[in-house]
Amino acid sequence: METAQKPNRTHIGRKISRIRELRGMKQESLAKALGISQQAISKLEQSEEIEDSTLEKVAKVLGVSVDAIKNYSDEAVFNIISNTFHNTSSDNSTLIASSLNYQPTFNTIEKIVDLYERLLASEREKVEILKKQ
């Protein structure tokens, strides 16, 4: 018995969706930039194939090339992130790695305690005002 195999087709709409999500962009933002509705973006992201002219517009708004969309894969992104994270070279790629390991220059516990004390003082003032009434 033979099984029918589908050719290895790429789903461009899903790739656009993943790139959009990685860029931190919502469908509404992409729709506004393209001058179409959010529903049209949803339909676009469900499409397996997209016209080249539309793909070029989407790529421009997302800040990537058409080839980047066509050749996108989650595996490649994870490899880039992994390689960047462990990179110890002195070029700009360490800037990305250091932003992943962001360490604030202030004591976060002190900031939380300070905020709590200000909130507590504010609540005490409210209680005093209510007692006077």
Automatic annotation (TrEMBL):
Keywords tagged on the record: DNA-binding
PROSITE patterns in the cross-refs: HTH_CROC1 (PS50943)
A family per Pfam: HTH_3
Domain HTH cro/C1-type: 16-69
Presence of keyword DNA-binding: yes
InterPro entries reported in the protein's UniProt record: Cro/C1-type_HTH, Lambda_DNA-bd_dom_sf
Molecular-function GO terms, alphabetical: DNA binding
Name of the protein: XRE family transcriptional regulator
Organism whose genome encodes this protein: Pedobacter psychrodurus
